[in-house]
Design brief:
The chain is built from 3 helices and 11 strands. It folds into 2 domains: 44 residues; 156 residues, no CATH class. With 219 residues, it is an alpha+beta fold. The protein has a 6-stranded antiparallel β-sheet, with no helix packed on it. Strands 3-9-8-11-4 form a 5-stranded antiparallel β-sheet, with no helix packed on it.
Length: 219
């Protein structure tokens, strides 16, 4: 009987450990090593609903206009991206019945709005929902991408900010040409899902609870 109680205690403590240490983890940078990548871009250059991106990729010469473009990069984030919206032409895409449009202010920095509309009634997907997003900023002859892992979006307007920091061939920061958004179901892959060092510290703290709880039951 005492062993059964100890097992239950250990399970409860492990559950606490998982909750404290894992579900609250921050995402370490994959391409944005140390938070920045080439051209000085960083995870904070693009936000969605007041949350920084989890990783960024770039900067890259060329264009990013279609789902084939991003899937052809074979990012470590995984593929299966669907085109959702383009600020330059108002083009809109649909992901499992959820339609999206995007607008962005002109200039080198500003705000953008991703508006979602449920077109399938009660059938899934429904808002609010958790999706992976890849947001591309095209300026001059270059672009960069920012990835959001398991971002929660609602129907209607979801707001964000952007800041272009890379420079053109003349050494100037170019104005935004267009902002493009891709999406996929959150199960489609992981965007830089590597725990930060502080996450390991939280996990160790949780494991410490396991030992403490076990000692109390045995004493």
């Amino acid at each position: 009987m005492k062993l059964q109680k100890l097992n239950r205690t250990l399970f409860g403590a492990l559950l606490i450990s998982s909750t404290v240490g894992i579900s609250s983890q921050a995402f370490a940078a994959g391409y944005c090593s140390g938070g920045t990548a080439t051209g000085g871009i960083s995870t904070g250059n693009v936000t969605l609903n007041s949350i920084n991106s989890d990783d960024c990729y770039g900067m890259v010469s060329g264009n990013i206009n279609t789902a084939a473009d991003i899937n052809g990069l074979n990012l470590t984030w995984g593929n299966n991206w669907t085109f959702l919206a383009d600020s330059s032409n108002g083009a809109s895409g649909t992901l499992m019945g959820l339609a999206f449009t995007v607008t962005a202010t002109p200039g080198t920095s500003g705000s953008w709005t991703l508006t979602g509309t449920d077109t399938n009634g009660t059938s899934p997907l429904n808002f609010p929902t958790s999706l992976d997003f890849a947001v591309g900023l095209k300026a001059s002859n270059e672009y960069a991408l920012w990835g959001f892992d398991n971002a929660i979006v609602s129907g209607g307007a979801n707001s964000g900010t952007f800041s272009i920091v890379f420079t053109n061939n003349g050494g100037q920061i170019p104005n935004l040409s267009h902002l493009i958004v891709f999406g996929r179901e959150a199960a489609g892959g992981t965007i830089a899902a590597i725990p930060e060092p502080e996450t390991y510290a939280m996990l160790l703290a949780g494991l410490g609870l396991v030992g403490f709880a076990a000692r109390r039951k045995l004493s």
